[in-house]
Amino acid sequence: MDKDWLERTELLIKEDGLEKLNKANVLIVGLGGVGSFAAEFLARTGIGNMTIVDGDTVDITNINRQLPALHSTVGKHKVDVVSERLLDINPKLNLNKINEFLNPERMDEVLDAETFDYILDCIDSVTPKLSLMKAAKKRKIKIVSSMGAGGKIDPSKVVVRDISKTRNCYLAKILRKRLKKENINKGIRCVFSNELQNEDSLKMTDGSNYKRSFYGTISYIPAIFGLYAASEVITHLIKN
């Protein structure tokens, strides 16, 4: 592997660390504000194998917070825009792209198709998020899950904890309740903000793609969620 572009990384994590990242295989589900940044940070660290999943196209309303969203990319598939960017960062990246919203049945299929070292759950709706968590737990695959980044503005309040330790996040609260019914009370790492949501920023939707509502979002908070998720994965892979 031509490692000139990873020279600064190698100084920090040594050749052994680079090798571990190059051999690693990660799955990122959801390429919105959180997932797109997480994918970029992973690619820039030298992760060797990656599968990215999203069935969405870039919308004009994504421009305020999502990496693939530009006026020139509106209407294009997010997996195509992100994959082009990732391969421009690392042309040797073994990249698999899945252009679809994973329904619960497909989760099993995707997770059984290859061996993943880590899963990044960057889905923003409850039902598919729950399915991915359950599928990962069932297979004992490490997973880090992004909770709600909307309605938040203070970057210092973003932390990574076990799902049992999440607070001040409606998405996490719903998921804890639903997971409890499946006898899952802990064991899922979550990126969340313990800042109270700004209730004035809530908007209801038509309910398409499992999404009934969303909060207003500032540019940098989803990116910080993606940063924390990527950091969780990278530090785990280097240690192991």
Structural write-up:
The strands form two sheets. A seven-stranded mixed beta sheet has the order 3-2-1-4-5-7-6, sandwiched between helices. It contains seven helices and nine strands; from the N terminus they run H-E-H-E-H-E-H-E-H-E-E-H-E-E-E-H. With 240 residues, the protein is an alpha/beta fold. The protein has a single domain, classed as Rossmann fold, CATH 3.40.50.720. Helices cover 41% and strands 17% of the residues. The model has no long low-confidence stretch (mean pLDDT 95).
Question: Which descriptors would you attach to this protein?
Answer:
alpha/beta; single chain; 240 residues; 7 helices; Rossmann fold; seven-stranded mixed sheet; 41% helix; two-stranded antiparallel ribbon; globular
Low-pLDDT regions: none
CATH architecture: 3-Layer(aba) Sandwich
The SSE string, one letter per element, is HEHEHEHEHEEHEEEH
- What shape does the CA trace take? globular
CATH superfamily: NAD(P)-binding Rossmann-like Domain
Compute the number of strand runs. Answer: 9
Strand content: 15-25%
Which percent range fits the helix content?
40-55%
